[in-house]
Amino acid sequence: MNVEVRSPWDGQVLKTLHMGGRDRVEELLVKATGALQSCKAWVPVWERRDILLKTAADVRAMHEEFSLTIAQEGGKPLMDARVEVTRAIGGIELAAEEMGRMAGREVPMGLNPASAGRLAVTTREPIGVVVAVSAFNHPLNLVVHQVIPAVATGCPVIVKPATHTPLSCIALVELLHKNGLPEAWCQVALLGRSEAEALVTDARVNYLSFIGSAQVGWGLRSKLAPGTRCGLEHGGAAPVIVGEDVDLDLLVPPLMKGGFYHAGQVCVSVQRVFAMKGIAGELAAKMAQAASTLIVGDPTDSTTDVGPLIRSGEADRVDAWVKDAVKAGGQVLCGGIKVSESAYAPTILMNPPDTARVSTEELFGPVICVYPCKSMNEAVQRANSVRMAFQASVFTHDIDTAMRVARHLDASAVMINDHTAFRVDWMPFGGRRESGLGVGGIGDTMREMTQEKLIVFHHR
Protein backbone atom coordinates (compact mmCIF):
# COMPACT_ATOMS: atom_id res chain seq x y z
CA MET A 1 0.00 0.00 0.00
CA ASN A 2 1.23 3.52 -0.77
CA VAL A 3 0.71 6.68 1.27
CA GLU A 4 0.89 10.23 0.00
CA VAL A 5 2.73 12.75 2.16
CA ARG A 6 0.85 16.02 1.66
CA SER A 7 1.40 19.59 2.71
CA PRO A 8 -1.19 20.45 5.39
CA TRP A 9 -1.31 24.00 4.02
CA ASP A 10 -2.38 23.40 0.42
CA GLY A 11 -2.66 19.63 0.06
CA GLN A 12 0.25 19.37 -2.38
CA VAL A 13 1.67 15.85 -2.64
CA LEU A 14 5.28 16.03 -1.46
CA LYS A 15 6.13 12.35 -1.87
CA THR A 16 4.52 8.95 -2.25
CA LEU A 17 5.91 6.22 0.01
CA HIS A 18 5.28 2.52 0.37
CA MET A 19 3.67 1.29 3.59
CA GLY A 20 4.84 -2.10 4.80
CA GLY A 21 2.70 -5.02 5.96
CA ARG A 22 3.23 -7.79 8.52
CA ASP A 23 6.10 -9.21 6.48
CA ARG A 24 7.88 -5.87 6.88
CA VAL A 25 7.43 -6.04 10.66
CA GLU A 26 9.12 -9.43 10.74
CA GLU A 27 11.93 -8.21 8.48
CA LEU A 28 12.60 -5.24 10.77
CA LEU A 29 12.71 -7.37 13.91
CA VAL A 30 14.89 -10.09 12.41
CA LYS A 31 17.48 -7.51 11.33
CA ALA A 32 17.47 -5.69 14.66
CA THR A 33 17.68 -8.78 16.84
CA GLY A 34 20.29 -10.33 14.56
CA ALA A 35 22.53 -7.30 14.94
CA LEU A 36 22.19 -7.40 18.71
CA GLN A 37 22.86 -11.12 19.00
CA SER A 38 25.99 -11.05 16.85
CA CYS A 39 28.88 -9.61 18.84
CA LYS A 40 30.78 -9.11 15.59
CA ALA A 41 28.06 -6.73 14.39
CA TRP A 42 28.31 -4.40 17.38
CA VAL A 43 29.46 -0.89 16.53
CA PRO A 44 32.23 0.26 18.91
CA VAL A 45 31.57 3.23 21.18
CA TRP A 46 34.16 5.44 19.49
CA GLU A 47 32.69 4.66 16.08
CA ARG A 48 29.13 5.43 17.18
CA ARG A 49 30.33 8.75 18.57
CA ASP A 50 32.11 9.55 15.33
CA ILE A 51 28.95 8.71 13.35
CA LEU A 52 26.89 11.08 15.49
CA LEU A 53 29.33 13.96 15.13
CA LYS A 54 29.53 13.51 11.36
CA THR A 55 25.72 13.35 11.17
CA ALA A 56 25.38 16.56 13.19
CA ALA A 57 27.78 18.26 10.78
CA ASP A 58 25.76 17.01 7.80
CA VAL A 59 22.48 18.28 9.27
CA ARG A 60 24.16 21.64 9.85
CA ALA A 61 25.24 21.73 6.21
CA MET A 62 21.66 20.88 5.14
CA HIS A 63 20.05 23.29 7.64
CA GLU A 64 17.80 25.12 5.20
CA GLU A 65 16.85 21.93 3.36
CA PHE A 66 15.71 20.29 6.62
CA SER A 67 13.90 23.49 7.66
CA LEU A 68 11.93 23.62 4.42
CA THR A 69 11.03 19.93 4.70
CA ILE A 70 9.69 20.46 8.23
CA ALA A 71 7.63 23.45 7.08
CA GLN A 72 6.27 21.60 4.06
CA GLU A 73 5.34 18.29 5.64
CA GLY A 74 4.28 19.51 9.10
CA GLY A 75 3.03 23.05 8.53
CA LYS A 76 5.40 24.57 11.07
CA PRO A 77 6.31 28.16 10.12
CA LEU A 78 9.74 28.38 8.53
CA MET A 79 11.10 30.63 11.29
CA ASP A 80 10.25 27.95 13.86
CA ALA A 81 11.35 25.08 11.62
CA ARG A 82 14.81 26.65 11.50
CA VAL A 83 14.90 26.69 15.29
CA GLU A 84 13.92 23.02 15.33
CA VAL A 85 16.82 22.10 13.05
CA THR A 86 19.26 24.02 15.23
CA ARG A 87 17.94 22.18 18.29
CA ALA A 88 18.25 18.85 16.49
CA ILE A 89 21.90 19.51 15.69
CA GLY A 90 22.53 20.38 19.32
CA GLY A 91 20.72 17.23 20.44
CA ILE A 92 22.89 14.96 18.30
CA GLU A 93 26.04 16.64 19.60
CA LEU A 94 24.74 16.42 23.16
CA ALA A 95 24.26 12.65 22.81
CA ALA A 96 27.86 12.34 21.63
CA GLU A 97 28.97 14.26 24.74
CA GLU A 98 26.79 12.17 27.04
CA MET A 99 28.49 9.00 25.80
CA GLY A 100 31.50 10.07 27.87
CA ARG A 101 29.34 10.28 30.97
CA MET A 102 27.55 6.92 30.69
CA ALA A 103 29.63 5.35 33.41
CA GLY A 104 28.95 2.78 36.10
CA ARG A 105 29.70 3.19 39.81
CA GLU A 106 31.39 1.44 42.67
CA VAL A 107 29.11 -0.28 45.19
CA PRO A 108 30.67 -0.26 48.69
CA MET A 109 31.78 -3.62 50.03
CA GLY A 110 33.51 -4.66 53.26
CA LEU A 111 30.81 -3.09 55.39
CA ASN A 112 30.15 -6.41 57.13
CA PRO A 113 31.94 -9.76 57.36
CA ALA A 114 29.92 -11.24 54.49
CA SER A 115 31.08 -8.55 52.04
CA ALA A 116 34.72 -8.51 53.12
CA GLY A 117 37.32 -9.17 50.45
CA ARG A 118 35.09 -8.06 47.63
CA LEU A 119 35.04 -5.23 45.10
CA ALA A 120 31.77 -4.39 43.33
CA VAL A 121 31.29 -2.16 40.31
CA THR A 122 28.49 -1.60 37.86
CA THR A 123 28.55 -1.14 34.11
CA ARG A 124 25.82 0.19 31.83
CA GLU A 125 24.69 -2.00 28.94
CA PRO A 126 22.27 -1.39 26.05
CA ILE A 127 18.76 -2.43 27.01
CA GLY A 128 18.24 -4.14 23.64
CA VAL A 129 15.98 -3.52 20.67
CA VAL A 130 14.27 -0.12 20.82
CA VAL A 131 11.09 0.77 18.95
CA ALA A 132 10.46 4.51 18.67
CA VAL A 133 6.98 5.69 17.69
CA SER A 134 7.16 9.40 16.95
CA ALA A 135 4.74 12.30 16.50
CA PHE A 136 4.18 14.87 13.75
CA ASN A 137 4.69 18.16 15.58
CA HIS A 138 8.51 18.12 15.71
CA PRO A 139 9.30 15.65 12.91
CA LEU A 140 13.07 16.05 13.17
CA ASN A 141 13.76 16.92 16.80
CA LEU A 142 11.48 14.27 18.29
CA VAL A 143 13.21 11.64 16.18
CA VAL A 144 16.54 12.97 17.43
CA HIS A 145 15.31 12.56 21.02
CA GLN A 146 14.10 9.00 20.41
CA VAL A 147 16.58 7.58 17.89
CA ILE A 148 19.90 9.25 18.64
CA PRO A 149 20.02 8.06 22.29
CA ALA A 150 19.50 4.50 21.05
CA VAL A 151 22.34 4.85 18.55
CA ALA A 152 24.56 6.42 21.21
CA THR A 153 23.95 3.61 23.72
CA GLY A 154 24.33 0.78 21.21
CA CYS A 155 20.69 -0.27 20.89
CA PRO A 156 19.31 -1.35 17.50
CA VAL A 157 16.40 1.03 16.89
CA ILE A 158 13.33 0.79 14.68
CA VAL A 159 11.64 4.17 14.25
CA LYS A 160 8.07 4.65 13.11
CA PRO A 161 7.61 8.32 12.15
CA ALA A 162 4.17 9.90 12.04
CA THR A 163 2.46 9.01 8.77
CA HIS A 164 1.85 12.71 8.03
CA THR A 165 5.50 13.73 8.55
CA PRO A 166 7.99 10.94 7.71
CA LEU A 167 10.34 12.86 5.40
CA SER A 168 12.55 14.52 8.04
CA CYS A 169 12.98 11.21 9.82
CA ILE A 170 13.92 9.36 6.64
CA ALA A 171 16.47 12.05 5.74
CA LEU A 172 18.10 11.86 9.19
CA VAL A 173 18.33 8.06 9.13
CA GLU A 174 19.85 8.18 5.64
CA LEU A 175 22.58 10.45 7.02
CA LEU A 176 23.29 8.01 9.85
CA HIS A 177 23.73 5.22 7.31
CA LYS A 178 25.85 7.44 5.07
CA ASN A 179 28.17 8.11 7.98
CA GLY A 180 28.74 4.45 8.74
CA LEU A 181 25.88 3.15 10.88
CA PRO A 182 24.84 -0.27 9.53
CA GLU A 183 21.21 -0.38 8.39
CA ALA A 184 20.23 -3.01 10.94
CA TRP A 185 21.07 -0.60 13.77
CA CYS A 186 18.57 2.04 12.65
CA GLN A 187 15.58 1.18 10.47
CA VAL A 188 12.57 3.23 9.41
CA ALA A 189 9.19 1.52 9.74
CA LEU A 190 6.44 2.98 7.54
CA LEU A 191 3.50 1.02 8.91
CA GLY A 192 -0.24 1.24 9.40
CA ARG A 193 -1.78 1.16 12.86
CA SER A 194 -2.29 -2.60 13.17
CA GLU A 195 1.20 -3.35 11.82
CA ALA A 196 2.73 -0.78 14.17
CA GLU A 197 0.94 -2.39 17.11
CA ALA A 198 2.28 -5.78 16.07
CA LEU A 199 5.78 -4.33 16.03
CA VAL A 200 5.51 -2.58 19.39
CA THR A 201 4.00 -5.56 21.22
CA ASP A 202 6.41 -8.18 19.88
CA ALA A 203 8.37 -9.99 22.58
CA ARG A 204 11.65 -9.20 20.82
CA VAL A 205 11.24 -5.50 21.67
CA ASN A 206 13.04 -4.44 24.83
CA TYR A 207 12.09 -0.77 25.02
CA LEU A 208 9.27 1.34 23.58
CA SER A 209 9.67 5.10 23.17
CA PHE A 210 6.26 6.56 22.36
CA ILE A 211 5.27 10.17 21.71
CA GLY A 212 1.63 10.78 20.87
CA SER A 213 -1.89 10.65 22.24
CA ALA A 214 -2.55 9.34 25.73
CA GLN A 215 -5.25 6.97 24.49
CA VAL A 216 -2.89 5.26 22.06
CA GLY A 217 0.13 5.33 24.35
CA TRP A 218 -1.51 3.85 27.42
CA GLY A 219 -3.30 1.33 25.21
CA LEU A 220 -0.01 0.14 23.75
CA ARG A 221 1.58 -0.07 27.19
CA SER A 222 -1.16 -2.43 28.33
CA LYS A 223 -0.25 -4.78 25.46
CA LEU A 224 3.54 -4.81 25.81
CA ALA A 225 5.28 -8.14 26.19
CA PRO A 226 6.44 -9.03 29.71
CA GLY A 227 9.72 -7.30 30.47
CA THR A 228 9.41 -4.59 27.82
CA ARG A 229 10.13 -1.22 29.38
CA CYS A 230 8.72 2.01 27.99
CA GLY A 231 8.77 5.77 28.02
CA LEU A 232 5.52 7.53 27.15
CA GLU A 233 5.18 11.22 26.33
CA HIS A 234 1.62 12.45 25.99
CA GLY A 235 -0.05 15.82 26.14
CA GLY A 236 -1.30 18.28 28.69
CA ALA A 237 -3.48 21.34 29.18
CA ALA A 238 -0.72 23.57 30.46
CA PRO A 239 -1.74 26.13 33.09
CA VAL A 240 -0.28 29.57 33.68
CA ILE A 241 -0.96 31.41 36.95
CA VAL A 242 -0.65 35.19 36.90
CA GLY A 243 -0.26 37.33 40.02
CA GLU A 244 -1.49 40.91 40.29
CA ASP A 245 2.04 42.34 40.53
CA VAL A 246 3.22 41.54 37.00
CA ASP A 247 3.82 43.91 34.11
CA LEU A 248 1.18 42.80 31.61
CA ASP A 249 3.03 44.27 28.63
CA LEU A 250 6.03 42.08 29.44
CA LEU A 251 3.82 39.06 30.07
CA VAL A 252 1.95 39.03 26.74
CA PRO A 253 4.84 38.16 24.34
CA PRO A 254 5.86 34.91 26.12
CA LEU A 255 2.20 33.88 26.34
CA MET A 256 1.81 34.47 22.61
CA LYS A 257 4.87 32.37 21.87
CA GLY A 258 3.94 29.63 24.33
CA GLY A 259 0.36 29.41 23.11
CA PHE A 260 0.62 29.87 19.36
CA TYR A 261 3.97 28.26 18.53
CA HIS A 262 3.24 25.68 15.79
CA ALA A 263 -0.44 26.64 16.01
CA GLY A 264 -0.61 25.32 19.58
CA GLN A 265 0.29 21.78 18.49
CA VAL A 266 2.78 21.24 21.30
CA CYS A 267 2.21 19.01 24.33
CA VAL A 268 3.11 21.85 26.74
CA SER A 269 1.47 24.77 24.89
CA VAL A 270 -0.02 27.55 27.01
CA GLN A 271 -3.71 26.62 27.16
CA ARG A 272 -5.22 27.85 30.44
CA VAL A 273 -4.30 31.21 31.98
CA PHE A 274 -5.56 31.77 35.54
CA ALA A 275 -5.23 35.49 36.33
CA MET A 276 -6.27 37.40 39.41
CA LYS A 277 -9.67 38.98 39.00
CA GLY A 278 -8.37 42.55 39.09
CA ILE A 279 -6.17 42.10 36.02
CA ALA A 280 -7.78 39.23 34.09
CA GLY A 281 -9.88 41.43 31.81
CA GLU A 282 -7.02 43.76 30.92
CA LEU A 283 -4.65 40.84 30.37
CA ALA A 284 -7.14 39.06 28.10
CA ALA A 285 -7.68 42.25 26.07
CA LYS A 286 -3.94 42.75 25.60
CA MET A 287 -3.54 39.11 24.59
CA ALA A 288 -6.38 39.44 22.07
CA GLN A 289 -4.81 42.57 20.60
CA ALA A 290 -1.45 40.80 20.19
CA ALA A 291 -2.98 37.59 18.83
CA SER A 292 -4.95 39.47 16.19
CA THR A 293 -1.71 40.80 14.68
CA LEU A 294 -0.19 37.35 14.11
CA ILE A 295 0.12 36.37 10.46
CA VAL A 296 -1.58 33.08 9.57
CA GLY A 297 -0.48 31.61 6.29
CA ASP A 298 1.86 29.50 4.20
CA PRO A 299 4.42 27.93 6.56
CA THR A 300 7.17 28.16 3.93
CA ASP A 301 6.83 31.96 3.93
CA SER A 302 9.37 33.40 6.39
CA THR A 303 6.88 36.09 7.51
CA THR A 304 4.24 33.59 8.69
CA ASP A 305 3.71 33.40 12.48
CA VAL A 306 1.08 30.66 12.62
CA GLY A 307 0.75 27.86 10.10
CA PRO A 308 -1.98 25.28 9.53
CA LEU A 309 -3.01 22.44 11.76
CA ILE A 310 -1.75 19.06 10.64
CA ARG A 311 -4.98 18.31 8.75
CA SER A 312 -8.36 19.88 8.04
CA GLY A 313 -10.14 17.58 10.47
CA GLU A 314 -8.13 19.10 13.31
CA ALA A 315 -9.21 22.61 12.34
CA ASP A 316 -12.83 21.43 12.37
CA ARG A 317 -12.35 19.86 15.82
CA VAL A 318 -10.83 23.01 17.32
CA ASP A 319 -13.65 25.09 15.83
CA ALA A 320 -16.25 22.76 17.36
CA TRP A 321 -14.62 22.95 20.79
CA VAL A 322 -14.53 26.77 20.67
CA LYS A 323 -18.18 26.98 19.58
CA ASP A 324 -19.21 24.62 22.39
CA ALA A 325 -17.35 26.79 24.91
CA VAL A 326 -19.07 29.93 23.62
CA LYS A 327 -22.49 28.31 23.83
CA ALA A 328 -21.72 27.44 27.44
CA GLY A 329 -20.84 31.05 28.33
CA GLY A 330 -17.28 31.69 27.11
CA GLN A 331 -16.50 34.85 25.16
CA VAL A 332 -14.36 35.04 22.02
CA LEU A 333 -12.11 38.10 22.21
CA CYS A 334 -10.36 37.42 18.92
CA GLY A 335 -10.25 34.64 16.36
CA GLY A 336 -12.73 31.84 16.77
CA ILE A 337 -12.88 31.08 13.04
CA LYS A 338 -11.20 28.92 10.41
CA VAL A 339 -9.17 31.01 8.00
CA SER A 340 -8.66 28.16 5.54
CA GLU A 341 -9.48 24.50 5.28
CA SER A 342 -6.69 23.58 7.69
CA ALA A 343 -5.76 26.85 9.44
CA TYR A 344 -7.44 28.37 12.50
CA ALA A 345 -7.17 31.96 13.64
CA PRO A 346 -5.25 32.56 16.90
CA THR A 347 -8.02 32.71 19.46
CA ILE A 348 -8.42 34.16 22.95
CA LEU A 349 -11.37 32.80 24.93
CA MET A 350 -12.48 34.62 28.05
CA ASN A 351 -13.78 32.58 30.97
CA PRO A 352 -15.12 29.40 29.35
CA PRO A 353 -16.71 27.02 31.86
CA ASP A 354 -14.37 24.73 33.77
CA THR A 355 -16.39 21.81 32.38
CA ALA A 356 -15.88 22.75 28.71
CA ARG A 357 -13.54 20.63 26.62
CA VAL A 358 -11.24 23.61 26.10
CA SER A 359 -10.79 23.62 29.89
CA THR A 360 -10.48 19.90 30.59
CA GLU A 361 -8.78 18.29 27.58
CA GLU A 362 -5.67 18.94 25.54
CA LEU A 363 -6.73 21.49 22.93
CA PHE A 364 -3.74 21.10 20.58
CA GLY A 365 -4.71 24.15 18.58
CA PRO A 366 -4.16 27.94 18.54
CA VAL A 367 -6.51 28.79 21.42
CA ILE A 368 -5.70 30.28 24.84
CA CYS A 369 -8.32 30.47 27.58
CA VAL A 370 -8.25 33.15 30.31
CA TYR A 371 -9.99 32.59 33.66
CA PRO A 372 -10.46 35.25 36.39
CA CYS A 373 -9.62 33.94 39.90
CA LYS A 374 -10.14 35.44 43.34
CA SER A 375 -6.90 34.11 44.81
CA MET A 376 -3.70 32.27 43.97
CA ASN A 377 -4.99 29.28 45.94
CA GLU A 378 -8.09 29.15 43.75
CA ALA A 379 -5.92 29.39 40.65
CA VAL A 380 -3.76 26.47 41.79
CA GLN A 381 -6.80 24.32 42.59
CA ARG A 382 -8.34 24.96 39.18
CA ALA A 383 -5.02 24.42 37.43
CA ASN A 384 -4.68 21.03 39.13
CA SER A 385 -8.26 19.95 38.37
CA VAL A 386 -7.58 18.11 35.09
CA ARG A 387 -6.33 14.52 34.61
CA MET A 388 -3.10 15.62 32.94
CA ALA A 389 0.00 17.08 34.56
CA PHE A 390 2.98 18.23 32.53
CA GLN A 391 4.61 21.66 32.51
CA ALA A 392 3.13 24.75 34.18
CA SER A 393 4.18 28.31 34.96
CA VAL A 394 3.61 31.18 37.36
CA PHE A 395 4.21 34.87 36.77
CA THR A 396 4.89 37.02 39.83
CA HIS A 397 7.62 39.26 41.23
CA ASP A 398 7.17 37.83 44.74
CA ILE A 399 9.60 34.98 45.34
CA ASP A 400 7.57 33.55 48.23
CA THR A 401 4.45 33.44 46.08
CA ALA A 402 6.37 31.90 43.20
CA MET A 403 7.82 29.14 45.36
CA ARG A 404 4.52 28.43 47.11
CA VAL A 405 2.68 28.10 43.80
CA ALA A 406 5.49 26.00 42.31
CA ARG A 407 5.31 23.59 45.25
CA HIS A 408 1.55 23.18 45.00
CA LEU A 409 1.14 22.91 41.24
CA ASP A 410 0.77 19.31 40.08
CA ALA A 411 3.37 19.46 37.33
CA SER A 412 6.62 17.79 36.35
CA ALA A 413 8.19 21.20 35.74
CA VAL A 414 7.21 24.73 36.78
CA MET A 415 8.53 27.79 34.97
CA ILE A 416 8.70 31.03 36.94
CA ASN A 417 8.14 34.14 34.82
CA ASP A 418 8.32 32.15 31.59
CA HIS A 419 5.81 30.31 29.41
CA THR A 420 4.98 26.62 29.83
CA ALA A 421 6.57 25.49 26.55
CA PHE A 422 10.13 26.37 27.55
CA ARG A 423 12.51 23.48 26.98
CA VAL A 424 16.18 22.83 26.36
CA ASP A 425 17.23 19.41 25.22
CA TRP A 426 19.39 18.44 28.18
CA MET A 427 16.73 19.04 30.83
CA PRO A 428 14.49 16.22 32.12
CA PHE A 429 11.16 16.29 30.30
CA GLY A 430 8.11 14.15 30.91
CA GLY A 431 4.54 14.17 32.12
CA ARG A 432 2.82 12.95 35.24
CA ARG A 433 -0.45 11.05 35.59
CA GLU A 434 -2.11 10.71 32.15
CA SER A 435 0.54 12.92 30.56
CA GLY A 436 3.20 10.25 30.44
CA LEU A 437 5.60 7.79 31.99
CA GLY A 438 9.36 8.03 32.38
CA VAL A 439 11.70 10.93 31.75
CA GLY A 440 12.86 12.31 28.42
CA GLY A 441 15.71 14.62 27.48
CA ILE A 442 18.79 13.35 25.66
CA GLY A 443 20.82 12.25 28.70
CA ASP A 444 17.84 10.90 30.63
CA THR A 445 16.66 8.92 27.61
CA MET A 446 20.12 7.41 27.20
CA ARG A 447 19.96 6.20 30.80
CA GLU A 448 16.46 4.83 30.18
CA MET A 449 17.80 2.87 27.21
CA THR A 450 20.57 1.24 29.24
CA GLN A 451 20.54 -1.08 32.23
CA GLU A 452 22.99 -1.57 35.05
CA LYS A 453 24.94 -4.77 35.54
CA LEU A 454 26.69 -5.45 38.84
CA ILE A 455 30.06 -7.24 38.79
CA VAL A 456 31.48 -8.47 42.10
CA PHE A 457 35.16 -9.48 42.44
CA HIS A 458 36.05 -11.83 45.32
CA HIS A 459 39.72 -11.31 46.11
CA ARG A 460 41.85 -12.88 48.84
Describe the structure using short key phrases.
six-stranded mixed beta sheet, globular, 20% strand
Description of the structure:
The protein is an alpha/beta fold and about 450 residues long. It contains 15 helices and 20 strands. The protein has helices spanning about 20-35, 45-60, 65-75, 80-100, 140-155, 165-180, 195-200, 215-220, 250-260, 275-290, 310-325, 355-360, 375-385, 400-410, 440-450; strands at about 1-5, 15-20, 105, 120-125, 130-135, 155-160, 185-190, 205-210, 230-235, 240, 270-275, 330-335, 345-350, 365-375, 390, 390-395, 415, 430-435, 435, 450-460. Helix 6 (about 165-180) links the parallel strand 6 and strand 7 (about 185-190). Helix 2 runs antiparallel to helix 4 (about 80-100). The protein is globular, with a radius of gyration of 23 Å.
What is the topology?
Blueprint lengths: L1 E5 L6 E6 L3 H16 L7 H17 L1 H12 L3 H21 L7 E2 L10 E9 L3 E4 L7 H13 L3 E4 L6 H12 L7 E3 L4 H8 L6 E5 L2 H8 L7 E5 L4 E5 L5 H13 L9 E7 H15 L20 H16 L3 E4 L12 E4 L6 H4 L6 E7 L2 H8 L4 E2 L1 E5 L3 H10 L4 E4 L15 E2 L2 E2 L4 H7 L1 E9 L2
Parallel strand pairs: 5-6, 5-8, 6-7, 8-9, 10-11, 10-16, 11-14, 13-14, 16-17
Antiparallel strand pairs: 1-2, 3-4, 4-20, 9-19, 12-13, 15-18
Helix pairs in contact: 1-7, 2-4, 2-5, 3-4, 4-5, 5-15, 9-10
